Amino acid sequence: MEMQYKMGKVGLKPFDKEDLIHSNYKNWLNNINVNKYMYRGKFPLTDNNIQDIFDSIDRKEKIEWAIYYLEEKNICVHVGNISLENIDFINSSAEIIIVLGEVDFWGKGIGTIAWEMAIRHGFKKLKLHRLYAGTHEYNEGAIKIFNKNNMICEGVKREAYKDVNKYSDTIHYSILSTNYFKDSK
Fold this sequence. Notes:
Layout: E1 5-7, E2 10-14, H1 17-21, H2 25-28, H3 32-35, H4 47-55, E3 62-70, E4 76-88, E5 93-100, H5 110-125, E6 130-136, H6 140-148, E7 152-163, E8 166-176, H7 177-183
Parallel strand pairs: 5-6
Antiparallel strand pairs: 1-2, 2-3, 3-4, 4-5, 6-8, 7-8
């Protein structure tokens, strides 16, 4: 399997039908622990819903990669997906979104490495100026990824997300190409 990007044991390749079929992707989308901070995870999805989501991807405004982890004996495991979405070439910006679906791989730095590769693609390949992301105030894993990749907290949307009977804030981060290239010298 050829990776588009690789750093250490983490690789990114364009997300395709093979990844959809031959991984646990469908299970991730219905796993409450994986989806507790995602808007998409509030309602169960059928195989047809998931296929419709895959088929409806607008490849002009979204680049999605499957995140693979290389285990011993050269076995690659599809552990998540990362994407650049809402790509706006007029304003030179895009949103980064990640899901690490394989719970056994959480906390191993895989998300941080995949995030770094997505940032690099956005700034070096697409020549974007600003990349942004947001998450819920309780999503410690995402906040660690943002901070480790030198993203700056831009602000908070108060009580913007409802989870069962409580509201939580969403926190928004960004990184500019000028900061990225200055910090990576």
